[in-house]
Amino acid sequence: MGFIALAVWVLTTFVIEILQIKSKKIRDFTDGKTTTLIKDGKILEDNMRKERLTIDELMEQLRSKNVFKVSDVEFAIMETSGEINVLLAKDKQPVTLKDLNMLQLPEKEPTAIIMDGLVMEQQMAYMGITQQWLDAKLKEKSLTVKDVFFAQGELYIDQYSDNVQMSKVQDSNQAVLTLLEQCTTELQKLALNSSEQQRKQLYELCSHNLKEAIQEMQPVNSSNS
Fold first, then answer.
1. What's the CA gap between 178 and 169, in Å, rounded?
2. Which of 71, 98, 190, 218 could form an S-S bond across to 203 if both were Cys, CB 3.0 to 4.6 Å?
3. Same domain, yes or no, for 23 and 39?
4. Domain edge (last residue) among 79, 97, 115
5. Where are the alpha helices (DSSP H) in the chain?
6. Does 125 map to a domain?
7. Any bridge partners for residue 118, and if so which?
8. Under a CB-based contact definition with an 8 Å cutoff, are residues 37 and 44 in contact?
9. Of residues 217 and 124, which shows the higher confidence score?
10. Which pLDDT tens digit goes with each residue over 179-198?
11. What is the pLDDT of residues 52-70, one digit of tens each?
12. What is the structure's pLDDT at 60?
């Protein structure tokens, strides 16, 4: 009984990790989302309360980034890990040669416009990027949205195929599914052969949980086929 419970726990953890890699929605659900704490030099008190962060803790984090004035901050974002990253206002950033011939325009928060092969329409609207512009940029690189793992700003692109053969990934996915299906079959056999009602119910529950995990993985697996 203890071994079965341990095996189910390990398999469940493994399945969740795979789903997190494959789906942004699942990552958002399990890991949470980033939170903007400062925008245009203004502390967002509601977001501070949401993250249960005090002003002393915020200032300590800013000082660790060599930032001592809130007014110098364009954006401060709390990552899902709890770390706070800071983007200084344009006129507070170190000057480069490029800056000497560049207008000081308001800078928008860098944001993803494609994730996991899906267009982030809300982020595109925020950045002022049109679908036509995005399609043209992708066409220049002979890509479609489905080819893109991650794209940001104007325009950084990371493809699914970076030094990875997708067929190998698909084979790995299928191997995991096959293993889970075998475990489900074995649990069903144990349930049928068990004379103890408590053990029988445990095997049936484990089998049911694995079936649900397999169903969750199937769309993810098939979408990459």
1. 14
2. 190
3. no
4. 97
5. 2-22, 24-31, 45-50, 55-64, 121-127, 131-140, 166-193, 197-223
6. no
7. 115
8. yes
9. 124
10. 778 888 887 887 788 788 88
11. 999 999 999 999 999 999 9
12. 93
